[in-house]
């Protein structure tokens, strides 16, 4: 089987037997996690369950104690420096706070990954950055503002533009709607859904936002007891684990399900 074919057939992410810890504190224990190509996978769990750490471990920002991680068909432990750099160019990450450089304008922030991974002349680099800024739903004049001059929602969009800079196949979003008002959050969910379909992205989305889960996720992984339970919303609603029952079938879960059903009927 050729490398290209292996790439095509493999899941976007395959994590097997993952253990992570900080000192004596074990965060994940023998955890398996798989994301199919082209799906939107929600990642939920109680506060401190290890959602962000899982995402950061997959993208190589956190060291694992044991286990195997494959991203886009490549075992991340078996890459040369050059291959690792190329693989990193195939995913984009939107961190919780946007993680923008405060001293740079939005345009300059979006140009950072282009400068690091592509050798383009300045004009093309700028044009590509402008396209990503427009794609993220920001007005053109936002390009020349610094992050501190933007609203929270606009900063998220700027972070998204930067995550999309290299035309990634895989997009990681860490609590993309946290801190947004409900209307802003719903708009952001729609944007993620539209981009996912238009660009054929695979998306992994850490979230506490039940509305987002109902609006955009194909499947959901729940981090419980240091491992993952995965399923569609319907499948998880049948899982008897008390945390899952409370989360999906408690008052907020039922309200989100009702809102999603109303939206489907209106569409
Ligand atoms: N760099 C670190 N050093 C030590 N402990 C850490 C570090 N990063 C995370 N942790 C711990 O790992 C655990 C999981 O953290 P993580 O941020 O993944 O939780 P989470 O599920 O994303 O929570 P939340 O929903 O509150 O953001 C927490 O107990 C946290 O304190």
From TrEMBL:
GO molecular function list: ATP binding; ATP hydrolysis activity
Keywords: ATP-binding, Nucleotide-binding, Transport
Domain ABC transporter: 13-249
PANTHER family assigned: PROTEIN TRIGALACTOSYLDIACYLGLYCEROL 3, CHLOROPLASTIC
Annotated protein name in UniProt: Phospholipid/cholesterol/gamma-HCH transport system ATP-binding protein
Organism in which the protein naturally occurs: Tistlia consotensis USBA 355
């Amino acid at each position: 089987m050729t490398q290209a074919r292996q790439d095509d057939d493999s899941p976007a992410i395959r994590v097997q037997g993952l253990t992570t810890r900080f000192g004596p504190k074990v965060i994940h224990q023998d955890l398996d996690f798989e994301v199919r190509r082209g799906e939107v996978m929600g990642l939920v769990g109680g506060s401190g369950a290890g959602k962000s750490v899982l995402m950061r471990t997959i993208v190589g920002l956190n060291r694992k104690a044991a286990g195997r991680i494959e991203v886009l068909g490549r075992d991340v432990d078996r890459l040369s420096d050059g291959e690792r750099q190329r693989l990193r160019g195939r995913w984009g990450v939107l961190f919780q706070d946007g993680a923008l450089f405060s001293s740079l304008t939005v345009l300059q922030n979006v140009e950072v990954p282009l400068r690091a991974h592509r050798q383009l002349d300045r004009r093309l680099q700028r044009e590509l950055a402008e396209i990503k800024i427009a794609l993220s739903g920001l007005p053109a004049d936002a390009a020349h503002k610094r992050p501190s001059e933007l609203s929270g929602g606009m900063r998220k969009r700027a972070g998204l533009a930067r995550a999309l800079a290299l035309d990634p196949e895989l997009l990681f979003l860490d609590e993309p709607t946290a801190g947004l008002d409900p209307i802003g959050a719903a708009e952001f969910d729609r944007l993620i859904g539209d981009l996912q379909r238009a660009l054929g992205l695979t998306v992994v989305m850490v979230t506490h936002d039940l509305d987002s889960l109902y609006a955009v996720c194909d499947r959901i992984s729940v981090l419980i007891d240091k491992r993952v339970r995965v399923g569609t919303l319907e499948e998880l609603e049948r899982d008897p684990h008390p945390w899952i029952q409370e989360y999906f079938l408690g008052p907020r879960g039922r309200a989100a399900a009702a809102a999603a059903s109303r939206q489907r009927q209106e569409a």
